[in-house]
Every structure is written in C-alpha cells, then in structure tokens.
Amino acid sequence: MNANTDLILYEEEFQQIVAEVERLCRDANAKVVFLVDKNGQLIASSGNAGGMDTTSLASLTAGNIAATGGLAKLLGEKEFSILFHEGEKDNMHISLVGDRVILVVIFDSRTSLGLVRLRVKRTSEALTRIFETIVRKSEAEKSAPGAAGVEAASAFAEITEDDIDNLFR
Amino acid sequence: MSFINYASREINCKLVYYGPGLCGKTTNLQYIYQKTNPDIRGKMISLATETERTLFFDFLPLALGSIRGFKVRFHLYTVPGQVFYDASRKLILKGVDGVIFVADSQLERMEANVESVENLRLNLQEQGYDLDKLPYVIQYNKRDLANVAPLHEMRELINPNGVPDYEAVAPVGTGVFDTLKAVARLVLIELKRGQGG
Hints:
heterodimer, A: 5-stranded antiparallel beta sheet, B: 8-stranded mixed beta sheet
C-alpha cells in the first residue's frame, strides 16, 4: 500500500481490526494494545488505556519506527520490523504489520516476552489480511465511486467554504 | 495522506512546518498551543536538545470541530531546521497532507531560506510528492526586526509560484493563525477534490 494514499476505514473492517486488537490484548495477557498508522495516527486500542495520552503515544511510536527505519537503511537493512523497549515495570513490544501499520503491546510481569511475540505473530497475519481488503476497497472506490457500497466520499465532496470557515470560529 | 475513519467518523490530517534553523517553526506551534482552548488541543511534545533546538520534531494535535458530521483533527509537526538533521526531516514528511514554509525575514538568512525551500522540494520528491501539487503556504516570519528583507524580494526568492503567503511575528501571534487556517483550507479542498468533489 502506498503510504501517500489516503487510508480510508469503513465500519466492517474497523470492527474486525478492533476485534483482533482486543483478542491480542486478552490472549497475550497484555496491559494495553494499540494499532497506529505509520504516519502517527491512532487506529484502534484495547485494554486499560485510561489515563494514557494515546495521541502522543501514537505520534511518538511512529517517530520511533521512522527513526529506526532510517537506521536500518543506513545498515543496508530494509527495515527493523520489531522493536522492544524494556522498563522497570512495563515493557513495549512494537512491530510493523504489512509495512503500513504499527502494532504496540504494552505488558508487565504478568506475561512474558515469548508469549507476546507468539500472539503478535498471529495477530499480524490477521491484520495483514484485513488491510489487504481495505486497500482493495479503497482502490475499487476510487475507480468506481459507490463500489464499496458506502455513503463514501460524497460527504467530503459537499464541503463548502462556510464549513471550512466554521472550523476556526 | 489523510486518514478517514467512517466507523468513528473522523478525518485526520498531517501538517508540517518546514524552514531553516531558528526561523520560528516551534514558536508557531507554541503560540497555537497557548491560544487554543485546552478542550480542542492535546499535549504538545517537543523532542529538543538541551539548548531547546528541535532534535526530531514538535507535535501538537488539534481537534478543530466537525465538517459534515466528521470530526476534523489536524496533527501539527515541525521539522528540525538545522542543515545536518536532514535524515530526520525526511522522516517527518512521511504522510504529509500540507506544508507551511516558515521563512526568516532577516537579510542574512535569505540564503538559508532558499536552501531550505530547495531541500523541502527535494525531500518531498524522495517521498513521491510534488511541492507544486501539495497544499502549501509560506509565512514570512520576524517582520518586527530591523534588518528584514522587503516583502517583494522575499516573494521573488522563495514564492515564485505565488502560493498563499503571510507576514508574521510568531512570538506575539501575528499571522500565525492566518497561516494555519490557509493551509488547513487547502488541505480540506484537496480532500474534497480527491473524493470526487
């Protein structure tokens, strides 16, 4: 998926993504699981994210992955697909899914890195399939609006100057 | 690239402030942060050195309101302006929807401005973007100083295509919101165009 094309999520795929993220959080016995777009937008989260600044977390995670990707290229690697940050209490497991989204698992001593890795692998495969569908739908929608059977783009086609002005009132 | 979520009815767009070192990119974000209602802004993050020079980026999320039932969110980023941070600058441009170039109006910084615009064009090209096709506005900052270049000269140098441009004094907010509004408008018009409007 070209990172410069708009990411458009419809209800059906969004629910599938949320279900996968929730399942990972449960099965890996993690504290929180996030799914972040490579450009720093939060897509979904599960677990006890209350009190966490999820917007900042998404942006910094994407920055982290971007910087690490830059390092990989310097070393002649395509990408470092997994990052692991170990803290005193909490740890972060960060992995790239399908070169487009970032899966973040925050966990503590109630589980193990091995279990997290194992469960992340399964979730990555499922998410990759979902995102392939999203790309297919987006492309179909672009070539024949309405093809995805959604209210779609027309919502934005009707944006007026007044709408834009009202944002800044 | 915008991120449109039909399930949560949100549009997220990424805006990047670009320009030479010490031109006022971070100051723009700080002013916006100070002057926006805490209900519509998130935390401002600055990844800076101990001497407060931007090392990686500043980040400020804004939730402006709704359009056609969709919550519109803008994520504002600055790049590090110093020449040797080019690798980091490239990373911040990933997925950009609109660019604000902050020029330093002081005469002795004209060369730095020109170099920075060229660097912007080149770094965008590497990511598959064309500066001439992207929502893009220019801000001539530091207009309150004594040694500034005349506006027409700056336009000739860094705005040959006549994109929307604004004079500014970022620390006191002159021109800051005008610049932001202008690029936000262009991004939304582009979104409308891209979605068959």
